[in-house]
Amino acid sequence: MAQIRWLDTLQDIPAGRWDALHDHGNPFVSHAFLGGLEQHGCLRREWGWQPRHLTLWRGDELVGAVPGYLKENSHGEFVFDHAWANAYARHGLDYFPKWLGAVPYSPVTGPRLLARDDADRRLLLQAVVEHVRDAGLSSAHVNFHSGAEDEVFDADWLRRVDVQFQWQRQPGWRDFDDFLGAMDHKRRKNIRQERAKISRAGIGFRIVHGDEASDDDLRAMHGFYLRTFAEYGNAPALTLPFLRHLANALPRQLVLFLALQDDEPIAGALCLRGGDTLYGRYWGGAALPGLHFETCYYQGIDYCLREGLQRFEPGAQGEHKLARGFLPVEVRSRHWIADPAFRQALAEWCDRERRDVARYAGQLAAHSPFKP
Description:
- By secondary structure, the protein is an alpha+beta fold.
- It is built from 10 helices and 15 strands.
- The protein starts with a strand and ends in a 7-residue tail after the last helix.
- The relative contact order is 0.14.
């Protein structure tokens, strides 16, 4: 008999048991990443994050899990449902708390229903629905799940889609010149000019993995991260102890791209490396022409080409990425709404949104920077 257990902290499960549920290709669902967020002050109840992880057991064996959270707001999710919350409020209903199956602060596609087969994945989803009903929650949401998990959601789970810009290695691309050679003249010239500006400014780069990063490197990167959030008036969630934790717990998966001028770091990008993918997460630095593009995009593409990686996901949003070789890719989420009337209304809303996103993606594809 399968047994469901809800956990308020990932520390209740040994890392080895949790990590046996996935293939280690996506660092964001690892015990090290998710547990580190809890341990090092990145998830706070006053920010709307309360861990509520779902686990599935057979006897003493952990056979399934979903990283989950009770949410009092939609902060740090990147699948925007503010209009839904407002609609609930107009009808005198509470949208919060809701339950979210996701990786905090990380709009990165990956496995969410951690189990060895679809039968157990369906048991996990049944348990989520029962929890929403029993706890009187408005809804459940599974954000940025993998395409392979789509089939286990039934029709009551509303489907939303969005577009991100991602780089995909093509056959014959051995180095950056091969990548540029696939582009049309205008975009190729523009990128070369942007990179030349950085070179003329005397800016070089150090690329360090977690086990190579000094504490000064980590402090510098965290400082750049804080600076970016301050510039946009947002509260930073990641702490310096969390970065130190990543460097120790994911020593070859944490990758820092540090821009140097006169041997001093002036900008940085923090990435995580998966099985065949580089994930760009955070950036900060001086306001110099072209520095953002070089630090966040071109250095990462160079790294992928050298290291044999196939994909580079530099984060959410940003049409400016298209001209730099990042093409539109569909990302997805699923949503179970407890109230039948709202479920029907939101199903129609999601249908319209999917049509709008499809049109948008088609328009973007028509402006590809690559030669036919």
